Amino acid sequence: MKLERDIIMALRQVYDPEIPVNVYDLGLIYEIKVDEDHNVYVQMTLTAPNCPMADYVVEQVKTAVEDVPGVVSVKIDLVFEPEWDRSRMSEEALVELGLDD
């Protein structure tokens, strides 16, 4: 679906301020659902539950998705189960952070 691809591209422009990798490739986005009316649901997490930049990152994700042409509304669901770990990272993110051993 083109809209979902556009949403993923937008999410790749959002970075955790403490890590030089975008939230999508970090594996912080667990699920993206787009309904027939173009309302978007994003389930995401953070690298740690006590992340001091949590509100900032969530707001940046919401804004990035809202700015995608065709999106009507966005609901962000911040979860900590299952817990994030580096196995969720893309190969590109692992290489960028020097963790591709």
Describe this structure in words.
The protein has 3 helices and 3 strands; from the N terminus they run H-E-E-H-E-H. With 101 residues, it is an alpha+beta fold. It has a single domain (2-80), classed as Fe-S cluster assembly (FSCA) (GMP Synthetase, Chain A, domain 3, 2-Layer Sandwich). A 3-stranded mixed β-sheet has the order 1-2-3, covered by helices on one side. Strand 2 (39-44), helix 2 and strand 3 (73-78) form a beta-alpha-beta unit. The longest helix has 13 residues, at 54-66. The model has no long low-confidence stretch (mean pLDDT 94).
Summarize the structure.
The protein is an alpha+beta fold. Helix content is 29%, strand content 18%.
In the CATH hierarchy, the architecture is 2-Layer Sandwich
CATH class: Alpha Beta
Strand content: 15-25%
What's the name of the CATH homologous superfamily? Fe-S cluster assembly (FSCA)
Q: Give me the strand/helix succession.
A: HEEHEH
Silhouette? globular
> How many domains, as an integer?
1
Within the CATH hierarchy, at the fold level, what is the topology? GMP Synthetase, Chain A, domain 3
Termini Cα gap: 34 Å
Give the % helix.
25-40%
The low-confidence parts are none
Radius of gyration: 13 Å
Number of strands: 3
| Structural class category | alpha+beta
The biggest beta sheet is recorded as: 3 strands, mixed
Average pLDDT score = 94
Widest sheet: strand order? Answer: 1-2-3
Total count of helical runs of at least 4 residues:
3
